[in-house]
Write a structure and sequence with these properties.
By secondary structure, this protein is mainly α. Helices cover about 55% and strands about 0% of the residues. It has one domain. Helix 2 packs antiparallel against helix 3. About 15% of the residues are buried.
Length: about 100
Protein backbone atom coordinates (compact mmCIF):
# COMPACT_ATOMS: atom_id res chain seq x y z
CA UNK A 1 0.00 0.00 0.00
CA UNK A 2 1.32 3.42 -0.90
CA UNK A 3 2.14 5.70 2.00
CA UNK A 4 0.58 9.12 2.01
CA UNK A 5 2.65 12.16 2.66
CA UNK A 6 2.21 13.31 6.25
CA UNK A 7 0.82 16.67 5.17
CA UNK A 8 -1.80 15.43 2.67
CA UNK A 9 -4.63 16.28 5.09
CA UNK A 10 -3.17 19.75 5.68
CA UNK A 11 -3.01 20.33 1.93
CA UNK A 12 -6.60 19.19 1.50
CA UNK A 13 -7.75 21.49 4.30
CA UNK A 14 -6.04 24.42 2.58
CA UNK A 15 -7.68 23.53 -0.74
CA UNK A 16 -11.11 23.22 0.91
CA UNK A 17 -10.95 26.88 1.96
CA UNK A 18 -11.42 27.77 -1.71
CA UNK A 19 -15.20 27.83 -2.37
CA UNK A 20 -14.79 26.55 -5.95
CA UNK A 21 -12.67 23.61 -4.81
CA UNK A 22 -15.04 22.95 -1.90
CA UNK A 23 -17.99 22.86 -4.32
CA UNK A 24 -16.26 20.29 -6.53
CA UNK A 25 -15.27 18.31 -3.43
CA UNK A 26 -18.91 18.15 -2.31
CA UNK A 27 -20.13 17.11 -5.75
CA UNK A 28 -17.43 14.46 -5.98
CA UNK A 29 -18.23 13.17 -2.50
CA UNK A 30 -21.89 12.72 -3.44
CA UNK A 31 -20.87 10.88 -6.62
CA UNK A 32 -18.76 8.58 -4.44
CA UNK A 33 -21.75 8.06 -2.11
CA UNK A 34 -20.15 9.81 0.85
CA UNK A 35 -22.93 11.02 3.18
CA UNK A 36 -23.62 14.72 2.61
CA UNK A 37 -23.28 15.59 6.29
CA UNK A 38 -19.84 13.95 6.44
CA UNK A 39 -18.60 15.78 3.35
CA UNK A 40 -20.06 19.10 4.53
CA UNK A 41 -18.46 18.56 7.94
CA UNK A 42 -15.02 18.20 6.40
CA UNK A 43 -15.48 21.37 4.34
CA UNK A 44 -16.91 23.41 7.23
CA UNK A 45 -14.14 22.38 9.61
CA UNK A 46 -11.51 23.28 7.00
CA UNK A 47 -13.09 26.71 6.48
CA UNK A 48 -13.54 27.29 10.21
CA UNK A 49 -16.73 26.45 12.08
CA UNK A 50 -17.25 29.92 13.56
CA UNK A 51 -16.57 31.65 10.25
CA UNK A 52 -18.89 29.37 8.31
CA UNK A 53 -21.61 29.62 10.97
CA UNK A 54 -21.48 33.41 10.69
CA UNK A 55 -21.65 33.18 6.89
CA UNK A 56 -24.85 31.10 6.99
CA UNK A 57 -26.35 32.91 10.01
CA UNK A 58 -26.35 29.95 12.37
CA UNK A 59 -24.92 29.43 15.85
CA UNK A 60 -21.78 27.27 15.90
CA UNK A 61 -23.26 24.57 18.21
CA UNK A 62 -26.31 24.28 15.96
CA UNK A 63 -24.09 23.99 12.90
CA UNK A 64 -22.04 21.22 14.50
CA UNK A 65 -25.22 19.39 15.54
CA UNK A 66 -26.53 19.64 11.98
CA UNK A 67 -23.31 18.12 10.63
CA UNK A 68 -23.54 15.16 13.01
CA UNK A 69 -24.66 12.13 10.95
CA UNK A 70 -26.98 11.08 13.81
CA UNK A 71 -28.90 14.35 13.39
CA UNK A 72 -31.63 14.58 10.77
CA UNK A 73 -31.59 18.15 9.39
CA UNK A 74 -34.39 19.48 7.23
CA UNK A 75 -33.96 20.08 3.54
CA UNK A 76 -34.13 23.82 4.23
CA UNK A 77 -31.25 23.62 6.70
CA UNK A 78 -29.10 21.61 4.29
CA UNK A 79 -29.87 24.07 1.49
CA UNK A 80 -28.83 26.89 3.81
CA UNK A 81 -25.45 25.18 4.29
CA UNK A 82 -25.04 24.44 0.58
CA UNK A 83 -25.95 27.94 -0.62
CA UNK A 84 -22.44 29.45 -0.16
CA UNK A 85 -21.21 26.84 -2.67
CA UNK A 86 -23.95 27.57 -5.20
CA UNK A 87 -25.62 24.21 -4.53
CA UNK A 88 -29.02 22.98 -3.36
CA UNK A 89 -30.71 19.65 -2.84
CA UNK A 90 -32.98 18.44 -5.60
CA UNK A 91 -34.40 15.31 -7.17
CA UNK A 92 -33.53 14.03 -10.60
CA UNK A 93 -35.10 11.17 -12.53
CA UNK A 94 -33.07 8.02 -12.93
CA UNK A 95 -32.56 7.04 -16.53
CA UNK A 96 -33.90 3.55 -16.90
CA UNK A 97 -34.27 1.40 -19.97
CA UNK A 98 -37.74 1.41 -21.53
CA UNK A 99 -39.78 -1.60 -20.60
CA UNK A 100 -41.62 -3.51 -23.21
CA UNK A 101 -45.26 -4.01 -22.55
CA UNK A 102 -46.67 -7.45 -22.97
CA UNK A 103 -49.20 -7.72 -25.79
Amino acid sequence: MARRHEDWNVGLAEDLRDPVFAREFLLGAIDEEVPLQVALGKVVRAMGVKEFAAKVGMASPNLLRTLNPRHNPTQGTLNRLLEPFGLKLSLAPIKSPRRRRAA
